[in-house]
Amino acid sequence: MIKKIITKEYLREKVSDVWFSDLTNEDIVPYFFISNDVWFDDGFEGLCLPETKATFYNYVQQVLDIILSFAYKNEESKCYIGPFHNVDNYERWTNKEEFDCFNELKNHIANNDYFEINVAENKELLGLLIENNFRCLTKISICFPKNNILLRPTHHMEVIVYSQQKNQTMNSLLDIVYLKKWKLIDKA
């Protein structure tokens, strides 16, 4: 996996300062959700059904496909990953190391670092990031600099999309999300 560690100062030259602020305020940055009717809270462990685990990983792959399709459609060859509006990349759970997916991700992404990655060359890393966020082990965001959007997969099996051009971004995602039988939810 090819990645380059970058500083917050470097990022501030490349992307909007707003990505480092409190993004819970709709007045600062408009946002919407990529969502599905099925909702796993913190992963699949508590449900213990074999088909549930398969469904979970199918959804991880679908979200990865949505993100990659958006990147390719909008000619985003690189992205930045890191904590952005959060304090760090990792959740504060004490037993994260019990999860193989977390240990694998930790081999590539340090707690407080930001990275610049080539999208096409790092599909596996992006999939691992989505899985860890869905399982509430990490809270890493993905920033696409050309379109100036920030994506944050959450432990509720959805992706929060922050965009200063919300309507334009929603239009760009609509056909991609529809093909995967997911939906866009505008909370405004």
Question: How would you describe what is shown here?
Answer:
A hairpin with a 4-residue loop joins β5 (141-144) and β6 (149-153). By secondary structure, this protein is α+β, with helices and mostly antiparallel strands. The protein has helices at 8-14, 50-73, 100-106, 123-134, 166-179, and strands spanning 3-6, 31-35, 78-82, 114-118, 141-144, 149-153, 159-163, 183-186. It has an eight-stranded antiparallel beta sheet with strand order 1-4-3-5-6-7-2-8. The radius of gyration is 16 Å and the shape is globular. The mean pLDDT is 84. The chain has one domain (3-16, 28-186). α2 crosses α4 (123-134), α2 packs across α5 (166-179) and α3 (100-106) crosses α4.
Topology (elements, then pairings):
Elements (H helix, E strand, L loop, with lengths): L2 E4 L1 H7 L16 E5 L14 H24 L4 E5 L17 H7 L7 E5 L4 H12 L6 E4 L4 E5 L5 E5 L2 H14 L3 E4 L2
Antiparallel strand pairs: 1-4, 2-7, 2-8, 3-4, 3-5, 5-6, 6-7
Keywords:
alpha+beta, eight-stranded antiparallel beta sheet, 20% strand
Strand content: 15-25%
What is the averaged pLDDT score? 84
Structural class, from secondary structure content?
A: alpha+beta
Question: Number of helical runs?
Answer: 5
Radius of gyration: 16 Å
Helix content: 25-40%
Helices and strands, in order, run as: EHEHEHEHEEEHE
Query: How far is the N terminus from the C terminus?
Result: 38 Å
Strand count, sense and closure of the main sheet?
8 strands, antiparallel
Count of distinct strands? 8
Unreliable stretches covering 5 or more consecutive residues: none
In the sheet with the most strands, the strands line up as 1-4-3-5-6-7-2-8
What overall geometry do the principal axes of the alpha carbons give? globular
Number of domains: 1
